[in-house]
Amino acid sequence: MFWRNSYQDLFWKNVLLMPKFLLYLLIGTDTWTQPQIQLAATSVNRKAPKRTAPAAEPVEPTAAPSDVPEHAPYLLIGGGTASFAAARSIRARDPGARVLIVTEESDLPYMRPPLSKELWFSDDPKAIETLRFKQWNGKERSIYFQPPSFYVSPADLAKVENGGVAVLTGRKVVHMDVRGNKVKLSDGAEISYEKCLIATGGVPRNLQVIDRAGEEVMKRTTLFRKIEDFRSLEKISREVKSITIIGGGFLGSELACALGRRSTDIGLEVIQMFPEKGNMGKVLPEYLSNWTTEKVRKEGVSVITDALVKNVTYKNDKLEIKLKDGRLTDHIVAAVGLEPSMELAKSAGLEVDSDFGGYRVNAELQARSNIWVAGDAACFYDINLGRRRVEHHDHAVVSGRLAGENMTGAIKPYWHQSMFWSDLGPDVGYEAIGIVDSSLPTVGVFAKATAKDTPKAATEQSGTGIRSESETEAVAGALKAETTATPPPIQQEEDYGKGVIFYLRDQVVVGIVLWNVFNRMPIARKIIKDGEQHADLNEVAKLFNIHED
Description:
Elements lengths: L1 E4 L38 E2 L25 E7 L3 H13 L4 E5 L24 H4 L1 E3 L5 E3 L21 E5 L4 E5 L4 E4 L4 E9 L3 E3 L1 E2 H4 L3 H5 L1 E3 L3 H11 L4 E5 L3 H17 L2 E5 L12 H13 L2 E4 L6 E5 L2 E5 L3 E4 L1 E4 L3 E3 L4 H4 L10 E2 L5 E3 L2 E3 L4 E5 L3 E3 L4 H15 L11 E5 L5 E6 L7 E6 L7 H8 L6 H9 L20 E8 L2 E8 L5 H10 L6 H5 L8
Parallel strand pairs: 3-4, 3-10, 4-7, 10-24, 13-20, 14-15, 14-20, 15-16, 22-25
Antiparallel strand pairs: 1-29, 2-12, 5-6, 8-9, 9-10, 11-21, 17-18, 18-19, 23-24, 25-26, 27-28, 28-31, 29-30, 30-31
GO cellular component, one term: mitochondrial intermembrane space
Subcellular location: Cytoplasm, Perinuclear region; Mitochondrion inner membrane; Mitochondrion intermembrane space; Nucleus
InterPro entries: AIF_C (IPR029324), FAD-oxidoreductase/Apoptosis (IPR050446), FAD/NAD-bd_sf (IPR036188), FAD/NAD-binding_dom (IPR023753), FAD/NAD-linked_Rdtase_dimer_sf (IPR016156)
């Protein structure tokens, strides 16, 4: 085991003694080194981004105005994970509740993580249409939370004896009358409510240089978010010779690895470029970010770091990305972040947070009387870590569930820390919790990985699929931490196979990354909740059993 302490120097490599084995990993590196590119800053478009081809045409309303109920006791705006979690929570506490979900999308509520993860690794050619996939544990499931038979018709919502959940697809709420407790839809229909949840999520940001580059460039640019974007990009990947992914965060890195894995089979060149020094450079300490970049390169991806896009032009059926030199590509995927959807703020008189974006809510996720906000669009007060806005699947589950409980009369604050995870294929993955920011001081403790220390092996062992708080808590809660006082062997070479990274603020742990360490999230959650200073984080790391064979 060895540790990294960013208080002293992110580049300082310290070797410590540990007990059971000599840690050594031969990390292959490319003999070709990408040139460092120093360019003028590239601005990101934070205005409402344009949806770009080859996405599907705007969704037409799927129900006639007469099918729109005039009243819904529980109205949920947005059809994503947060809304579905809220609906499930409402029905659990109020079994006869009538819940109406209104969504712009043409699909029933579904989970987004497989769009950039498991669906790309499916061997079933029909998976593109069925949206069924094998999880890392080999079990098959659908991307949809529930089949159509689970839901009731919006027109019948007021009539069903025991209530239910209805989904009105292809509709957008364009105005809120908070005094009259009603909303107006894009087709002019109005719906009154008693309790309302705003869970509108967000839209992908785009680079301004692409936004102003013209129609031909926009046609060849994907902003990845929805099912239609997955299907479109999958089709494009089989038709073009090269795809360039701009962005080194979670989504960009996951898509790069997914496309890189299949690049040899389909003759596709996959390029990933971003302004940071390594993949997920805003999240991981620099040494681990650089190590991760080498892993991404081994997946068949040409990674260009320190790259700032100055201009994008279309010429001779190619897109030229202007860096220090010209880079030619057939298609661009812009993965440069998410802009929370806040279009209802003005009509509803809701406060928007100027620092984090999103609707500003209290610790109970309430924005105004009878109005709650959950998911990506909520800027909430975390009683442990202060005001935050989080854009991850598990936060949508946790915040949606809490909002649903509070909509039915509970008065619960947001205290349960949600987690998030990212997989770079079936062999490298991590789970994280709290404030995970590479600008914070960090202490990392690592050990050599075994065959069991991969996302695939972890799900095979636990029986879980999508890793979220609601699905891993039962498994992880049964695990007991063990410690050992024996000293480590000499570490000959850095091995970031598995480990724990602690993020510190004022000497207190405020964030934790579990690197190829799975089903230990309750331990991390307790450490953050306790909010204590620790004299020796190497001892704390032993709670995660990273030395198990």
